[in-house]
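Researcher: Next sequence.
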Amino acid sequence: MREIRIEKITLNIGAGKDQKKLDNGVALLKNLTGIAPVKTKAKKRIPEWGLRVGVPIGCKLTLRGKEVPALIKRLLEAKEFHLQEKQFTDEGTISFGIPEYIDIGEMKYDPEIGIMGLEVCITLERPGFRIKRRVYQKKKIPKSHKISKEESISFFKEQFNVKVGEVE
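Model: Next structure:
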C-alpha cells in the first residue's frame, strides 16, 4: 500500500485571447500525444486583458495509463533530467515548464505552429487514494498515507534518474 505510482500527467498551454496561438497550441498537443486536447474557457471577466466569460483562452490534455512513463521520459529529456526542488509540492505533484517544444525528443519544428512552450503537471498517488474520489463514503487521505515532497523526489530519482537541485 506504500508503493508510489503515477496517477496522471496534465499538459497545458495558455494562449490568452489570441485564437491563432490557441489553434497552434491545440495542434502542438495533438502532434505530441495523438489525442485532441480540450479548450479551456475564461471564468472571469477581465476588461484590461480583453477577456470575457466563456472565451477560450487555453487548451489542456490529461493522460493516464501505460503510455505515460514514456511521455514523461521524453518531457524530462527536454529539461535534461534536471528539476528544481521548488517544482515538487507537498501533495505529490511535480510541475515544470518546457519553453520550446522542439527540445522534446522526436519533435520536429513545424513552421505553422512556430515556437511555443507548454506546462507539465505530474500527479503521483498510492493505492487507496480512491477514497478521496469515490461517490459513496468519500474520505480524506490520512496524513501518514500522503506523499511527501521527499518521497516524490526519491521516486523521480529512482524511476527516471532525475537530478534535483539548483542549476550549476
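Model: The helical segments are 19-33, 68-78, 149-160. The mean pLDDT is 91.
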